[in-house]
Amino acid sequence: MALFLLGRRGFHRVMTAIRPSSVASGKKPVNGVDLYYEQTGRGKHAVLLLPGALGNFCIFYNSKLCYCFDTTYFLKKKSFIWQTLGFGKFSLLGWSDGGITALVAAARNPDMINKMVVWGANAFVSQQDLKLYNGVRDVSKWSARMRQPMEEVYGVQVFAKLWEAWVDGMAQFVHRPEGSICMEHLPLISCPTLIIHGEKDPMVPNLHPEYLLKHIKGSRLHLMPEGKHNLHLRYADEFNTLVEDFLEE
Fold first, then answer.
1. How many other CB atoms sit within 10 Å of the CB of residue 216?
2. Which strands, in side-by-side order, build the sheet including 65-68?
3. N or C terminus: fewer CB in 10 A for the chain?
4. Catalytic residue list contains 201
5. Mean pLDDT (whole number) for 167-193
6. 99: domain range?
7. At what angle do helices 127-135 and 156-171 cross, to 10 degrees?
8. Pick the catalytic residue: 96, 185, 208, 232?
9. 153 with 210, same domain?
């Protein structure tokens, strides 16, 4: 059962194997912004889904109640979502940049987070990472299948400029001590945390999940040997089973 709460730009929905059969939608005014949402089913265990870069990829997840919205807006208004939705506690699922957002949120709001799952996330940017980012700067070199979802949301030219700006933004972290994005937040995370990582992820080297495992107390790491950056899409059944089992423990 899932409910997705979306940001101002809206999101391109990427389906996994699980698709809710009955969906209700609407808008909620939050801090002067109308946030679109979709809802299906009922449940007391709320799960907040945080999408990846540019905030336009959502994940259907088979849980009791799920929300998804723009991660950039979430960082600026870190507490608005809890108050608006009326739930005292959430579990967090964060992919890529959304995983970074989840790490920060869990550290800043320890009393509000039940559990957390992150994948494709990193707490710092190294020279190795920067090389990988620059390697994908030119979106015209991407496959049409990879470009299409974002181009449908932003338009071809706007997406290309936004992606270049994202690469430039990530590059700025190299100038911080140890390239930290949120390294200082990791010791403050107290919720049970599952880190999932695709060992063939072309964007996030294996050193990152190992670092998260070492610095988040009580966390666990599950490696998917054939998984890449979008492992929740390509291996949706396995991914959903892992997450469901973890949240229900």
1. 26
2. 65-68, 46-50, 90-95, 113-119, 193-198, 220-224
3. C
4. yes
5. 94
6. 3-122+182-248
7. 170
8. 96
9. no
Strand 46-50, strand 24-30: pairing: unpaired
Question: Does the pLDDT of residue 159 top 80, yes or no?
Answer: yes
User: 101-157, pLDDT tens digit by residue?
Assistant: 889 889 988 988 999 999 999 999 999 999 999 999 999 999 888 888 788 878 999
Burial class, 111, CB count within 10 angstroms (exposed 0-12 / middle 13-18 / buried 19+): exposed
What is the CATH number for 86?
3.40.50.1820
- Average pLDDT of the residues in 60-76: 43
Task: From the candidates 97, 201, 219, 232, give the one annotated as an active-site residue.
Answer: 201
Q: Is 96 a catalytic residue?
A: yes
Q: Could you say which of 162, 180, 198 is where a domain stops?
A: 180
Is the model more confident about 150 or about 76? Answer: 150
Q: Are residues 26 and 94 in the same domain?
A: yes
Let me know whether 38 and 99 are in one domain.
yes
| Chain length of the chain | 249
pLDDT of residue 30: 63
Q: How many domains does the chain have?
A: 2
Q: Please tell me the distance from the alpha carbon of residue 35 to that of residue 19, in angstroms, as a whole number.
A: 21
Query: Is residue 79 among the annotated active site residues?
Result: no
Q: Give the span between the Cα atoms of 201 and 114, in whole angstroms.
A: 27
Among 185, 208, 229, 232, which one carries the catalytic annotation?
229
Whether 34 and 106 share a structural domain: yes
User: 217: which 2 tokens?
Assistant: 């107390």
Q: What percent of the chain stands above pLDDT 90? A: 43
